[in-house]
Design goal:
Number of domains: 2
Order of helices and strands: HHEEEEEHHHHEEEEEEHEHEHEH
Radius of gyration: 19 Å
Distance between the termini: 37 Å
Largest sheet: 5 strands, antiparallel
Length: about 300
């Protein structure tokens, strides 16, 4: 992780928000933004009760202010060092890796049926039923009972579920929820394909883009043999670095399959600075992302 990203992730959210005139209130150890009672903050961590998602300071700026990861890092490091999370030993302790619980997939209440995610992924997103049903059968995809959200399991190198990417099946004002379940392990994503020494590791911005790409390749009769497909649930360099270390053993070819937009292109530039030999494979120019191309 480079120093700017590390600094951004360590930014104390409460201090930053107060400095920037966001109306906050405190209840016990938690802070809340007025009018957003389901969103609680402490140190450089946040958690949204209504969706069960949270993360670090960068994730907060992406979720709350709708910034790209690069824009979030730029914004957070503008006043570098001014709002770092306080060290232990002071009255107001931050939530750190030791105080956060490990991810427990059993804590997510799975629905008794999967009708909503089947309707959303097959009818709305155009992903073939056999692909969706295979992911459900393998417990890599399921419907959350309380929200009806689609839960895409993030697995590590042993196959253990260490987190979850969340996609809302309903939209409000044409905005559909996207996020990551709280306590999800950093550096991992929803994966499909060959995990043992893959020849290629393909990285996508979302689980739906990943499944859309597999559908497009199947229609074109293109084989994905020897490939591992990974969703970053956004644009997360740490997912690329970790996947190469734990799956690719530094010998796999990296393929970036990100969106045709400014955020995606900025991320390509960032990754090329670290991995000059990577391959870029974006949707056709007339489409923003892989699902757009599948439906186009």
């Amino acid at each position: 992780m480079n120093s700017r990203v590390r600094l951004a992730r360590q930014t104390d959210l409460v201090s930053w928000l107060r400095q920037n005139n966001e109306p906050l209130k405190r209840a016990g150890q938690w802070w809340y933004i007025e009018g957003c009672d389901s969103l609680r903050l402490q140190g450089n961590k946040w958690y949204r009760n209504s969706t069960g998602c949270g993360g670090n300071s960068i994730d907060f700026f992406v979720d709350y202010y709708n910034l790209s990861p690069k824009e979030a890092v730029d914004r957070l490091t503008k006043d570098a060092g001014c709002f770092l999370v306080k060290k232990s030993g002071v009255k107001e302790k931050n939530i750190n890796a030791q105080t956060l619980s490990e991810f427990d997939v059993n804590s997510i209440d799975s629905a008794s049926d999967q009708r909503r995610i089947l309707a959303y992924l097959i009818k709305k997103r155009g992903i073939p039923a056999d692909i969706v049903l295979a992911q459900i059968r393998d417990r890599q995809l399921f419907q959350e009972s309380r929200t009806g959200n689609a839960i895409f399991a993030m697995t590590n190198e042993t196959g253990a579920i260490v987190g979850a990417e969340v996609v809302g099946t309903l939209s409000f004002d044409n905005i559909r929820f996207k996020g990551i379940k709280a306590n999800s392990a950093g550096g991992y994503g929803y994966t499909v394909g060959q995990k043992l020494n893959p020849r290629y590791i393909l990285f996508f911005e979302s689980a739906i883009d990943l499944l859309s790409f597999t559908t497009i390749m199947r229609k074109r009769k293109k084989s994905l043999f020897g490939c591992l497909l990974v969703s970053m649930a956004g644009l997360k360099f740490e997912v690329i670095r970790n996947a190469i270390q734990v799956f690719g053993k530094s010998i796999a070819t990296i393929v970036l399959c990100v969106d045709n937009d400014k955020a995606g292109n900025d991320f390509i530039t960032l990754c090329l600075s670290q991995y000059p030999a990577l391959i870029i494979k974006q949707p056709d120019k007339c489409f923003k992302d892989w699902n757009d191309q599948l439906l186009g």
